[in-house]
Amino acid sequence: LPLLEVKNLNVSINNNEILKDFNLTINPGEIHAIMGPNGSGKSTFSKVLAGHPAYSVLNGDIFFKGSSILELEPEQRSHLGIFLAFQYPIEIPGVSNEDFLRLAYNSKQKFYNKPEVDPIEFLSIMNEKLQLVNMSPIFLSRNVNEGFSGGEKKRNEILQMILLDSELAILDETDSGLDIDALKTISAGINNFMTSSKSILLITHYQRLLDYIKPTYVHVMQNGQIIKTGSANLAIELEKKGYEWLN
Ligand code: ADP
Ligand code: MG
Ligand code: MG
């Protein structure tokens, strides 16, 4: 059974049709990279998967673990195992990272009728996860993303993804603006997260991320559609020749 199946999806925002007969199937254990020029609809696709309310699905369907998720709220999709890391992580003044992460964790526990964890139990869970992304426990006491550097925000996202143990992680330009050390740390965190039952959808402009996270497939998006699919080598070819070469 595919983890994600997107069939003939047409999506609009403000009466602009952005995705046009978009199709994509992701099986457990696969890493898919989506590349493509600015404005091709990559972020739109990721937000539609997460259930962003601004987008209208005009036609088609999205199946996750075999069931349509179109009618589900973003929170329900998240509980089912879809994780979206935003291109621009938000700051939440006055809320500590620790409280934020514990709320997210307990909300998922509740959804599956599992016991909520108390702050002390939670800290012991977190200590193990923090090491996977090379983050200091000090981050837990700081407000969500407030004053975090670009690299710290991205590591914080990977931390959330690992904590929630989602099956489908969607990372939209998680590599943008990172220096090489942060890129390596984040890639290691992502590779640690990956198992044969999970999948990752990586949206990126740059081939360099794919030096660290080896994609099963690389797709090129243009004008709201996937116009080409290939192996990891396609990303290397794109780096050399640019997107124009495909037209
Ligand atoms: P990408 O992530 O590939 O750069 P996006 O999904 O962000 O592309 O954008 C795809 C297209 O959707 C662009 O042409 C953009 O202008 C348009 N778009 C995005 N948000 C809106 C909006 N709120 N209203 C109208 N058009 C939008
Ligand atoms: Mg863009
Ligand atoms: Mg984008």
UniProtKB/TrEMBL annotation:
Q: Name one Pfam family in it.
A: ABC_tran
Q: What UniProt keywords apply to this chain's record, in alphabetical order?
A: ATP-binding, Nucleotide-binding, Plastid
Among SUPFAM superfamilies, the record links this protein to: P-loop containing nucleoside triphosphate hydrolases (SSF52540)
Q: Does the keyword Nucleotide-binding apply?
A: yes
Keyword DNA-binding in the entry? The reply is no
Origin species, per record, is Nitzschia inconspicua
Phylogenetic lineage: Eukaryota, Sar, Stramenopiles, Ochrophyta, Bacillariophyta
Q: What is this protein called?
A: FeS cluster assembly atpAse SufC
Q: Name one GO molecular function term.
A: ATP binding
Start and end of every ABC transporter domain? 4-246
Superkingdom as given in the UniProt entry? Eukaryota
